[in-house]
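Everyone, describe these structure tokens:
***
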Amino acid sequence: MKALTIRLGEFAISALVLTVLFRYALNLCIEVHSVIGTTLCSIVYACLMYLVGWYFGKKDAVENDFHDIGFRFHMVTYLLCIGIGYGAYYLGWNTENLRAMAITAISWGLGLAIHFVFYLIEQRKTIKGYAKDEIFQ
């Protein structure tokens, strides 16, 4: 089973671009103390990330028979968002302080760990990535 697919890579590139743009726009809104701009930026980013994930996730599910309940996409999103968050901090963008980023990384990491448990449960229902009921009909 190939875990890294073209659609996952396309999602990662899209998420990278969206996250960098979001962090930059968020930095600008925070500098001018715009609550409406910050809120709007966050809502637009969340919607775009959802749509990009849904689009590439659906295409990936059609092209590759994975039973991973979106774990690979969740892991890529976690790594990108947390990594870019720390990068933005060290670039001097005033988006978050280190304590807030650590709390975000830990709480999101716990959610990712729970998702990983569900991923393992789903994998036990498959044989080399294929659903058992598809093989033994």
